[in-house]
């Protein structure tokens, strides 16, 4: 015996309209999360939007902006490169966004190239003023580096002081380094690195309170000074004041300075704090020959490699470091944390 279908039930079923979210639905959620600074959620929603609407370049561009905000500059530029390949001149803003990311990564020539490309494509684009400011900054850095090279070549006395202080610091001869650095601070007050090296040597020689007081005073005058931040982070880690140290290290994780000495300082600080994967990336990005032959480079790059599952590379670096700095062999090996 068959039963006839219930007309009411049939009508009820056919009136149900399934909800099929569009790319724009996910995109709007991503924008909302981004504005609330919920970056993980923003990335999730925007990836969904791209998955549903892969031919909508705006979604990829917005995801690149989120990546830039969290310091994932390579990932951001990968997305922007794909947009340029697919849509070409229709999205010239990508060139400026890429220039900005390259500047953060310290790749100055690439930053300059893409900033100039952006201005070539758009005479009066949304980022025209920002691109000009970026180019001005990059040109200024190039000029400063040229001027510094000439200045240091001419100032034989400063070079002698630098080499002497550097030798004592690299060999952990704090007592000998301090008077040299003190004289440098008096004779060459414009050479600001000397005062930070002085504070570091002071701390290492046991004058912890004085070193911390000096760096805090300098940090108040320049709250973004990288050398003050890394020195204080190092000091607080040594004193097991981890909360204070991490409050200084956290902002440094998204800082990609232009100068090699500052790059090395951040890499070492991240390694000291146990951010080994990030430290390895920073050490690998170093190119300057003088920097990659430093004691701290060998020691902390080696430790970072060991703690990220690369013991052979770690031992190779440690052995090279020990050949140049024999005292390093007294510290055990790359399995230590320093």
Automatic annotation (TrEMBL):
Coiled coil: none annotated. Pfam families: TPR_19, TPR_8. It comes from the Bacteria. Keywords: TPR repeat. InterPro entries: TPR-like_helical_dom_sf (IPR011990), TPR_rpt (IPR019734). TPR repeats lie at residues 23-56. This is Tetratricopeptide repeat protein.
């Amino acid at each position: 015996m068959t039963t006839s279908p219930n007309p009411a039930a049939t009508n009820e079923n056919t009136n149900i309209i399934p909800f099929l979210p569009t790319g724009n639905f996910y995109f709007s959620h991503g924008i909302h999360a981004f504005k609330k600074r919920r970056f993980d959620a923003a990335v999730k929603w925007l990836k969904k939007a791209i998955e549903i609407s892969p031919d909508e370049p705006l979604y990829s561009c917005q995801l690149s902006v989120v990546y830039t905000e969290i310091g994932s500059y390579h990932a951001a530029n990968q997305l922007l490169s794909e947009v340029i390949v697919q849509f070409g001149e229709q999205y010239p803003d990508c060139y400026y966004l890429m220039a900005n990311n390259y500047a953060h990564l310290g790749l100055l020539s690439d930053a300059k190239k893409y900033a100039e490309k952006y201005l070539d494509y758009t005479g009066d684009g949304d980022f025209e003023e920002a691109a000009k400011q970026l180019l001005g900054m990059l040109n200024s850095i190039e000029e400063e580096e040229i001027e510094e090279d000439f200045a240091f070549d001419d100032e034989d006395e400063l070079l002698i002081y630098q080499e002497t202080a550097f030798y004592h610091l690299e060999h952990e001869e704090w007592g000998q380094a301090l008077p040299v650095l003190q004289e440098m601070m008096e004779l060459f007050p414009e050479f600001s690195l000397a005062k930070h090296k002085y504070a570091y040597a002071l701390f290492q020689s046991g004058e912890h309170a004085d070193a911390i007081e000096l760096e805090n005073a300098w940090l108040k005058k320049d709250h973004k000074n990288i050398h003050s931040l890394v020195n204080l982070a190092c000091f607080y880690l040594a004193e097991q004041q981890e909360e204070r140290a991490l409050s200084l290290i956290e902002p440094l994780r998204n800082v990609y300075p232009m100068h090699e000495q500052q790059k090395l300082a951040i890499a070492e600080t991240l390694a000291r704090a146990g951010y080994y994967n990030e430290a390895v990336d920073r050490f690998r990005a170093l190119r300057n020959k003088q920097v990659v032959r430093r004691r701290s480079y060998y020691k902390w790059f080696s430790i970072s490699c060991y703690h990220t599952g690369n013991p052979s590379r770690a031992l190779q670096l440690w052995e090279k470091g020990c050949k140049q700095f024999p005292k390093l062999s007294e510290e055990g090996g790359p399995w230590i944390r320093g």
